[in-house]
Description:
Mean pLDDT: 80
Shape: elongated
Helix content: 40-55%
Number of helices: 36
Largest sheet: 9 strands, mixed
CATH topology of the largest domain: Calcium-transporting ATPase, transmembrane domain
Number of strands: 34
Structural class: alpha+beta
Low-confidence stretches: 1-20, 437-454, 481-490, 736-745, 1111-1132
Distance between the termini: 72 Å
Amino acid sequence: xxxxxxxxxxxxxxxxxxxxxxxxxxxxxxxxxxxxxxxxxxxxxxxxxxxxxxxxxxxxxxxxxxxxxxxxxxxxxxxxxxxxxxxxxxxxxxxxxxxxxxxxxxxxxxxxxxxxxxxxxxxxxxxxxxxxxxxxxxxxxxxxxxxxxxxxxxxxxxxxxxxxxxxxxxxxxxxxxxxxxxxxxxxxxxxxxxxxxxxxxxxxxxxxxxxxxxxxxxxxxxxxxxxxxxxxxxxxxxxxxxxxxxxxxxxxxxxxxxxxxxxxxxxxxxxxxxxxxxxxxxxxxxxxxxxxxxxxxxxxxxxxxxxxxxxxxxxxxxxxxxxxxxxxxxxxxxxxxxxxxxxxxxxxxxxxxxxxxxxxxxxxxxxxxxxxxxxxxxxxxxxxxxxxxxxxxxxxxxxxxxxxxxxxxxxxxxxxxxxxxxxxxxxxxxxxxxxxxxxxxxxxxxxxxxxxxxxxxxxxxxxxxxxxxxxxxxxxxxxxxxxxxxxxxxxxxxxxxxxxxxxxxxxxxxxxxxxxxxxxxxxxxxxxxxxxxxxxxxxxxxxxxxxxxxxxxxxxxxxxxxxxxxxxxxxxxxxxxxxxxxxxxxxxxxxxxxxxxxxxxxxxxxxxxxxxxxxxxxxxxxxxxxxxxxxxxxxxxxxxxxxxxxxxxxxxxxxxxxxxxxxxxxxxxxxxxxxxxxxxxxxxxxxxxxxxxxxxxxxxxxxxxxxxxxxxxxxxxxxxxxxxxxxxxxxxxxxxxxxxxxxxxxxxxxxxxxxxxxxxxxxxxxxxxxxxxxxxxxxxxxxxxxxxxxxxxxxxxxxxxxxxxxxxxxxxxxxxxxxxxxxxxxxxxxxxxxxxxxxxxxxxxxxxxxxxxxxxxxxxxxxxxxxxxxxxxxxxxxxxxxxxxxxxxxxxxxxxxxxxxxxxxxxxxxxxxxxxxxxxxxxxxxxxxxxxxxxxxxxxxxxxxxxxxxxxxxxxxxxxxxxxxxxxxxxxxxxxxxxxxxxxxxxxxxxxxxxxxxxxxxxxxxxxxxxxxxxxxxxxxxxxxxxxxxxxxxxxxxxxxxxxxxxxxxxxxxxxxxxxxxxxxxxxxxxxxxxxxxxxxxxxxxxxxxxxxxxxxxxxxxxxxxxxxxxxxxxxxxxxxxxxxxxxxxxx
Length: 1132
């Protein structure tokens, strides 16, 4: 890299800062002559590679990844044992299913990677124009190098990350949409530094000699730090700072601008788009954890069976006359073999014989179920929103079933519970109230005429307040979509990234001050006298979530320098010196309690000498490449002091449609809902009442700055409040109460309110006692409250709250839902992240697992789809273990009747086809289509959600039930067949059934029983269910006839020849099969009959209860939650 001394602007602008982690780029790849000691840096090319595999590494790399899965590796070991050791079954029996699973997965992953290759080629081979030697040269996008000057025309996407040099507009601006990066469809304005604005031709671009020093590539789309040094013919450098407003990101699209020139600073896999496509951390569902536990149990069963048979084999052979038969006598070599080695070999052989107890195909079926099942969410018309013309989106199908296991819901307020549709309601200027309404709905708003105002304050203060609203913002004017040249039109369109700012600018217009836009760095407004005022924009002190305010420094036409600042009351009041601010405080508190969003406005005059110092500090900080944000924050903090308070504004953010009903349903389902917001407490509390998070009967416990500041020693006061609240709640909810969900409706409800400052005090407390630890007491209080409101939260604090609940005993399942960039941290932290497709961009939606248009859609997503997905996949998992135990138990029992000789009961073809063909499709169809309760009933009756909470269907109880059921049926299969046919059951040709006929009868009963068991479990029949269930049985019969009806030349032994046809030619065999199937299914049939009787009885009782309730209706604490629900016995 170029040494520091080689750049004359380095020491002047940045002092002694170090340049570790920066890169130097020469515009047009023309090194500056003063940098003779420059060593060229190596940058990556502009190829985008999103694919995982190449033609050469696909096979080894994919196999390595697949065999990292325990089940696949286990079956590979079994296959290798079969190949190397004399085992009772052919290697085909385990090799073919493993090959099928590996092949299907490889084809799926290979196809997905081929699509990525194709997409990469479309981008890499696209033609672009580079400026070389004052000419436009056409090249493929992948051949762009760092330092090349690229020409991009309207509606084209940027091929790499570019620093804007110039555009076809006179002010060097261009409009860009970043919808493909963050989902924001609004046009954003980007700027060229003023020294390169005039370079609008290839010839002039080629004369530019400049060096750019910037940070190394990093993925944050909204951060960029750099500086450009422009050299004149005398080699004197002019340095300008570069920020995100100068950077054009790869993947963004140029709009409303004919042409721009930019220099490539990041290419290929170093662009921000490529860095953002790195995979998120893998989230594991509770079902996956249950599967792993069950696999351990079944592996233990397998090892126990193999060890038992190995021991009993040698015990049996030690009995006189029970040695191996004459045709299987040991050779001398075998006799010389160590007995321990022989026992180990036998153990491995029994492992191979019983290995099908581990369901290898379950993983493929589960993956297919999750992938295909996710489409039902995307296809659900109830999730479609006409306003944005979009529906739900599934970003992570691996967590479908987790939607049915949520314990805690963490929700943002603005844009999630509310519409983020801002209406300017009123303002207060020096205590005088001004009221009017102007609505902003989508960040793009038409202006309208003035409003007659009332209750006038001092004229100068009033005008100063309205000027502040017109100047302190980042709103831009869009005139009839025209960018080049002026357009004569009185209709103005305001564009901004935040709807709040448009509402405030429009509010100022209502009172006679109209913002007309910015031209050549001058902001123009029209005052009440219809005079045009111009202010030079000197500096913008941008808003951030830590400062919670923004400011502008402007110079008026008389030369006076003013600072206008707006922000949250907690960020403004400590920085003003007005003696009389009580009236404004009262206004803020009143409007906050009405549920309005409030902002305070202040200003101060800056003396010229002070401004020179401030300007120098700001320029130096903006030129810094390291810790630029920290340096700017310190300067902002110094500037925004000793201001004069002008007034406050009130903007209404309407509650979303059905938000209250959704929260009520979530409460009824037993979920705890926490609101995490950055708004002030009064506004957030009012919203919580409006959306029924808090009821009128709810007793609120406050842990806020207001309650703690009552004492001089904050920590002592906090400790007192924590102990007091804990005693109150523990008295109300004793420890013996296992289910707080039931207690909520029977006892006094409590809600907790905490703000960010108090939360920091709790989390950073020095009290380390295990009993009196602030965090421990706080958690106990939270667990006893029906609802929690956390206000004044920073994004990091939101994630801390979610992490705190995630780490509680029992590991409750958390869900976070939000719409803005400040919600991304908690969305990523929670088990399930839901993004709202909001008006503040799509960062939350892009980083979420699921994305929905409105908060109300959360109700059906959890109570309907989540419930069904969990029930389906839980049944799928239990059924797989059940049918495999049914399959292998007769094989184990058979060893007691064959001298533990490792003789297989089933033919190799049946061993191979059982999981692949005979029983795979019915359970897949069931797991995709089953609705044991109608989805509309699930959505309308939230209490049904509680029936499956806590991973209820995959606990040890249900697992043992399925295991004992499989053991019972497997025993019936074997011993039923054995006892029915042991007493000279003869065919018509007087031949006794042999080994393979016996095994085929058992296998036939097995296939029909496990398939009909699934038919009995099915409540929602479709033509697909009928097709796969009866089709699978028909295929088994057809295959058996076909397999046994032909002499296959590649088989050494034709042991199944004509077995199936011969077997079914006997009426006694038919009767035995039907009888044993009925006996096996009898417990299930009996259970269904008992459930139907219970259901009818419950319905009669419910009818009587309804009649009784209608005669004597009594008021309740929560009438909306204690309404009559549909019969919960429908779960049966």
